[in-house]
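Exercise 4. Each item below gives a protein and its sequence. For each, produce the structure-token representation.

Item: Hemolysin-type calcium-binding protein (Pseudomonas fluorescens R124).
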Amino acid sequence: MFAFDGGAGFDTVDYSTSDAAVNVEIRPGISLAGTGGDAQGDTLLNIEKVIGSAFNDTFTAAAISYATFEGGAGDDVYFVNGGGVTIIEQEGGGNDEIRVSWNTHTMAANVERMTYTGTVAFTGYGNATDNIITGGIGNDLLFGGGGADQFFGGAGMDTVSYDDSTVGVSINLKTGVSSGIAMGDIYNSIEAITGSRFNDIFIGSSAALALNGGTGIDMVSYESSDSAVTIDLKTNVNAGDAAGDTFAGIEIFQGSNFADTFLGSTANDNFVGGAGADVFDGREGIDTVWYANNATAVNINLQTGVSQGGDAEGDVFINVESLIGTNFNDTLTGNAAANGLEGGLGNDVIYGGDGNDVIYGSLYTQLGPFAVNVAAGGPQADLLYGGNGDDIIVGAPDDRGTQAFGEAGNDTITVVHGVANGGEGNDVLTGTGTGFSLFGGAGADKLILQNGGSAFGGEGDDTYTVTSGRLVTIQDDGVSQGDTLVLTNINAQQLLFDRVGNDLYVHQYSVFEGQTPDEGVRLKDWFAGSATMDVIKTADGQYIGLPTSNDAFNMFG
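Answer:
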């Protein structure tokens, strides 16, 4: 039995040799008696650290901003009433518990359990081991950290959060099989779950929960549901396994394998129906229905209501503006609205219809769990039709065999290796790869050649912009003269002109007599009546006039 008074400095009392458990308390300015083992009858004053025994010790830090406890072996219990308490436990040092009465605490390493004993809202952080974290009667916020954790919320509106995760989590509330730091976690009396700052997936169950995706692209799925669900994002009056669920920070909603009903919000919503004849009413906003995970091709017409193939069979679309196709050969048709249509992989046929549409031959929108490497999908021979309206059409990353038609309106079309045909209107056509063909059609078109390909302007005062160092071919059989060639990589003093057959080459580097240039621009059939180019604008801003067809023979022949 000893009276310990550490005085100034950092002082330690060591009970590591005790043959029984000890129970000690540190309180500022008060000499308190210990019990059990070697601590029986000892008083501690001005002591900053206590080392426990190899048995089930009890440590208390009351109204204190400093204390260090080292538990050793055994199932130790720590009572913590304030901040600044340091707990040291070794790996495998028993099944230890922290009992906290103040409103926030982070578990020390190698401590397994934390229980909140206070009455206000509590915020608790677990550690990297398997924890059991128990809240109180308030609205608690619990973080498990790593490990397979068990959460007991108690009374109140309690939330488990994965905001501290460094990767996205997948939480299956139906089967309990989860991933990321949620792997192995179990929820008891938990009313809300918040995801990470990355792309999360929540698979719902019959339990009513408030699901918050946090940042990232997050999805709530009811694909494991045993019956149809209704999701109403405006009223939160949901049905089936979705009954009682509320949503925040969720970008994608997936239904069951039955006939589901999706009712959108005022924002831009994303729906995945699954099997069954589903009803989608997007309400306000730009709303999208996804078939990216469908096992077969789909045929969907937003104008006529036709919906065929796999998960799309029998689906009904109301106030739906956008569609995402499958990895197979889909047919997608828009309506009079401004549609967004994406074919996904496969050789798709897409019709924009009326309205100012945005059409992608491949999957452009990389959204959470539906993000794919479209560049690895191989060539896509799509047929893309803009229809009426000022459309934007973009071919797949490997669009060899693709043909894109703007049709009516002032369209913007981009292909890599494919064919772009602007049709009527003042169109902007861009080729970015090799082997592409750009056809301006009627109107004052802008044709941009960024690599190796061909351009044909047609009627109207067209502008050809060449940014490539490779040889490109331009032919304009239009009646009017007034076309402009813009060279972004050749200055005026570098220009060379050579005739090869009926073609005029405008290039930069000299060639031997009889040799054909392999860079610059080939003006095809210039000397056979296609001399409609009126002026060249060079990289240094100079404008150089070109002769008419009749004079061309004299100038270059």
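Check: Helices lie at 549-556.
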